[in-house]
Input
Amino acid sequence: MATTKIRQTVEGYVKRMNHADIEVLNVAVAGNIVLAERVDRFTYDGKKIAARCMGAFEVTGDKITAWRDYFDVPR
Output
């Protein structure tokens, strides 16, 4: 996904967000790949959401050039 698309996607989420708290549990780096295990806690449109996540980021220079998130949302 191009950097512009990533920015547009994130901006769309942020516009709906009333609150955000990201708890980083673990980080691993190998070359230009960063893995971040975390708990995302958001309030979207007044509804609280919490999810355990694993993010895989590809970094070029100081920019994220690819971003994949994997979620474990409790039911």
